[in-house]
Amino acid sequence: MTNEISLLSTGEDPMSVPEAPRSSQKLSPGAWLKVNLFNSVTNSIITVVVGLIAAYVTWQAVAWVISKDFTIIRDTLRIFMIGQFPDDELWRLWVSGAILVIAIGLAAGALARNSYELAESQGLEPESSSVLDLVRRFWAIIAILLLFASFARTAQPKIGIVAVIILVFVVRQLAWSAPVAIRSRAVYISALLVVGSTLVVAGTSRLGGACVGIVVFAWALNESGRRDVAAMRGGRFVSWLLPLVVAAIVAAIVAAIGFDGYGWDDWGGIHVNLFTAVVGITLGMPFGILLALGRQSKLPVVRTASVLYIEFVRGVPLISLLLFSKLLLPLFLPIDMERPAALTLAIVVIMGFSAAYVAEIVRGGLQAVPKGQTEAAQALGLSPGAMQRMIVLPQALRAVIPAMVGQFIALFKDTTLLTTVAVLEFLDAATIANNQPQFLGKGLAPVTYLFVAVGFWAFSFTMSKESRRLEQRLGVGTR
Predict the structure, then answer these.
(1) What is the pLDDT of residues 269-285, one digit of tens each?
(2) Helix, strand, coil: what percent of the chain each, to 5?
(3) I want to staple 326 with a disulfide (CB 3.0 to 4.6 A). Which of 4, 187, 401, 421 is the partner?
(4) pTM, full prediction
């Protein structure tokens, strides 16, 4: 009786049987097969039957791939990758890609080193982050890039892709060994580099890219220089004013130079799919979080506007919104205003569409946060903004990681709908390749669509795998 009372006081079920501790020793391959696949007669029969079926399907698939002629991919690889980008402007893509790779490597190395040091300071076991571990994590993307390079007829694309893969690992290792002053600002520097990589291709004549560059540049300067500038006269006011002044001066200088880029209307291939997905996810997530918070606001105007927006967007197909942006939205613009590019309008629509779904996902996470958490934050005297930023949102976002990544994967695949607004994307490139005169009537559609499917799978699989890794690190689904 005493034991049952002690179990109830600790919240445990007195009828439950304690789970036997699992062995920390790793099983050998033979022992693992015996324990998991051949531990009984029934399981052994099922394993053999499923193994034979899998071997037969694999053999047929490999034989089909070997028997096919992939000349269509080699001849039209340029359309699949970059569309109709002119030869004399290809340097923009290579420079932009190199800047983007540097940004990714810098942010990845700095964040990994910061997490490693934080785990050590808290007495936790740091996560290993060697080059081999990175290859295991991103093997699908590395493999698909090497596959793309293998279809190139010249040596330049092959050398360039291999150099880009090596560059990201080199930059990451340099960021891992960088001083704390650089690592603490690595995310903001990477944000500036991402904007710079976009401007290299699109140029300063694209108003959207220039505005994003100014905003991110001002934010990065403000955050990175907060400690130094705050000591100056004016304190916090100067810490905001100085970055904005510097950003305005830099923007004026760049605009005076007149660095024109290559129009977004002429972008194409998987380059467009990746760019649209990244921008849609990056801008849609914060907007969706604001919509979720607005839907729970106590202000009727904010709550009603958030609900109307979310329910309207979620009730309308994305393809209809894209057609609206292409055909009807320009009619509401002033007559003397330059008509935005089709890709610009599509990105705005995809960002708003993603934000509505992210808002509902985040709202589910907000409802999963116990009420006692907000009451405890209020008891500590935290402001509503600090309470949401420090207490509520971290727990809510942690709980909805699987649903959030699933939405991002769906958004990446939905970029194939860009073809409805006359934007040449990865899937549409397959149709164009099949309609080339030299390939008509040869039945090569399965080859091109398989190539597209493998490309989408590589990036989607990597996103899903990183999501599972993040869930394990944050302990999602465990107590």
Answers:
(1) 888 898 889 888 888 88
(2) 75, 0, 20
(3) 421
(4) 0.79
Please give the Cα distance from 259 to 309 (Å, whole number): 38
Residue located via tokens 């903001």: 188
* The token pair that represents 428 in the structure block: 């549409």
Tokens 């993040």, residue located = 470
Number of C-alpha atoms within 13 angstroms, CB side, residue 426?
Answer: 24
The predicted pLDDT at position 4 comes to 41
Range of weakest confidence among 7-11, 44-48, 366-370, 434-438: 7-11
- The three-state secondary structure class of 151 is coil
Sign of the Cα pseudo-torsion (130, 133, 135, 137, in order): negative
| Residue 458: both structure tokens together | 């590589």
- Indicate where the chain has its CATH 1.10.3720.10 domain(s): 265-479
The beta-strand segments (E) located in 206-281 are 268-269
pLDDT range class, residue 200, cuts 50, 70, 90: confident
Q: Which residue has the tokens 């936790």?
A: 124
pLDDT tens for residues 245-257?
A: 555 565 565 555 5
Rounded Cα–Cα distance for residues 400 and 397 (Å): 5
Q: Give the count of beta carbons closer than 10 Å to the beta carbon of residue 118.
A: 11
d(CA 263, CA 86): 11
Note whether 397 and 466 are within 8 A (CB).
no
How many Å apart are CA 347 and CA 318, to the nearest integer? 12
* Spatial distance between the Cα atoms of 383 and 377, rounded to a whole number of angstroms: 8
Alpha-carbon 201 to chain mean position:
20
Return all residues near 3 (Cβ < 8 A) that are at least 6 apart: 14
For residue 464, give Cα distances in angstroms to 101, 104, 186, 355.
21, 19, 25, 20
CATH classification code of 265-479: 1.10.3720.10
Q: What are residue 425's DSSP bridge partners?
A: 269
DSSP states of 313-361: HHTS-HHHHHHHHHHTGGGGS-TTSPPPPHHHHHHHHHHHHHHHHHHHH
CB atoms within 10 A of CB 473: 11
